[in-house]
Amino acid sequence: MDGTSPKTARPRCRDLGITIGRMSPGPKNAITDVPQVAVGHVTLIDGEGPLVPGKGPVRTGVTAVLPHRGNLFEEKVRAAIHVINGFGKATGLAQVAELGVLETPLVLTNTLSVGTAWDALCEYMLTKNPEIGVSTGTVNPVVLECNDGFLNDIRGRHVRREHVLAALDGATCGPVQEGNVGAGTGMSCLGFKGGIGTASRRLTGELEGNCLGVLVLANFGQAEDLTIAGVPVGFELSKRQHHPPAPPGSIVIIVATDAPLSDRQLGRVARRCQGGLARVGSVFHNGSGDFVVAFSNAEKVGHQGPAIENAKMVRDDSLEMAGLFRAAVEGTEEAVLNALFAADTMVGRDGNTRLGLPLDETVEILKSHRAL
User: Fold this and answer.
1) CA 10, 14, 15 angle in degrees (round to 5)?
2) Rounded distance between C-alpha atoms, residue 332 and residue 35, angstroms
3) What is the pLDDT of residue 4?
4) Is the dihedral of CA 362, 193, 295, 70 positive or negative?
5) Which of 340, 319, 342, 338 is closest to 330 using CA atoms?
6) What does the pLDDT read at residue 95?
7) What is the pLDDT of residue 308?
8) Which of 188, 282, 288, 296 is the catalytic position?
9) Closest CA to 168 of 16, 65, 30, 51
10) What pLDDT score does 248 carry?
11) DSSP string, 215-235
């Protein structure tokens, strides 16, 4: 069983000359372009052949996103939740929506491993904060999920506490691995192999020097709906090769920024991510669990008191807020495409197979539509 994060040789969108939107990406074009944000993965791949529930094959993992490297319980960040469609099993979202702050890292995994991930994240926070449950209140672990059961022995619940802790402890602020990695290992997207994707946008105007980053766990949609740079690539590919209907699936979208935003404003930004999903071909199916968590680490909120820093909030009617909206749309769109481009073909349980997006054919179609 692989507890590491394998590197992928497949290119990202921009490596092939595909430019998404008008805004410029950050230097890594990743959520970690937002200062202090860190991402860690643990990838679990083991076995092949017929499904033996509880034994494998295993195609799953864990991804952790840390808003900053300090003590999040003592230094919370402003946050908001947007539920596009609530067909999901996430934990901790109600309190974030109620109070407007996030006090733990975010952990992503498969649907039936949410309980294990919650327990491990709770342990992680209790270890760092011995006062929890003794001299202060409890803690609100936030765990989100998508269903990887097409490729993975999901009943086996192969994600263990040590895997979650390893993803948290191993999180870094460097480039983010994408595709078949971490929680994305067994995921499918728009009829092809999906998984983890990320992108970022530099902000402008009075927010010059600030950034907005997006990370997605992409596991939704049908092949014929895939749209790249406005081109119906999935429809064209479906005419060449049959793609069996995929289950509705889901997506988790994490939005990070160091722009000074209130939790209400973060909710406004989070809602704009739907525009990015629509651009790539999502129709927000009934059975799709689509969640957005948006946070700003510009201002830390003390556990026992007011904000530790007094950052000046962005005006709602400003060009800067309009830029944040655009960044959320473009960042979501490109993050999903990066997940698709990075993910290679994977064979899972019972020989179930998700093909990687055929990059040569995709480029050919984009060129035929003069999008490249």
Assistant:
1) 45
2) 19
3) 41
4) negative
5) 338
6) 98
7) 56
8) 288
9) 65
10) 73
11) EEEEEE--GGG--BTTB-HHH
Q: What is the pLDDT of residue 311?
A: 66
Q: CA 225 to CA 370: how far, in whole Å?
A: 19
**Residue for token pair 């093909």:** 355
CA angle 163/93/221 to nearest 5° reads 75
Predicted confidence at residue 309, as pLDDT, reads: 57
Predicted pLDDT at 267:
98
Please indicate whether residue 344 is annotated as part of the active site: no
Strand 106-110 versus strand 58-66 pairing type: antiparallel
Choose the catalytic residue: 5, 113, 250, 282: 250
| Residue count (the chain) | 372
Give the residues across from 250 on adjacent strands: 219
Record the tokens describing residue 137, joined without a space.
């209140």
Q: Residues 200, 258, 290, 296: which is the catalytic one?
A: 290
296 with 260: CB under 8 angstroms?
yes
- Computed on alpha carbons and rounded to an integer, the radius of gyration of the chain in Å comes to 19
318 catalytically annotated: no
Domain segments of the chain as ranges = 26-345
Pick the CATH number of 26-345 from 3.10.25.10, 2.60.40.420, 3.20.20.70, 3.60.70.12: 3.60.70.12
Burial class (CB in 10 A: 0-12, 13-18, 19+), 97: middle
CA dihedral over 256, 39, 74, 99, signed as positive or negative? positive
pLDDT in the model for residue 3: 43
pLDDT tens-place string over residues 83-142: 999 999 999 999 999 999 999 999 999 999 999 999 999 999 999 999 999 999 999 999
Task: Please report how many Cα atoms fall inside a 13 Å half-sphere around the Cα of residue 346, on the Cβ side.
Answer: 32
Q: Is 290 a catalytic residue?
A: yes
Going from the C-alpha of 161 to that of each of 62, 70, 166, 180, the distances in angstroms are: 10, 21, 9, 21
Q: Low-confidence residues of the chain, pLDDT below 50?
A: 3-8
Q: Which one-letter amino acid corresponds to residue 246?
A: A
SS (H, E, C) 154-216: HHHCCCCHHHHHHHHHCCECCCCCCECCHHHCCCEECCEECEEEEEEEECCHHHCCCEEEEEE
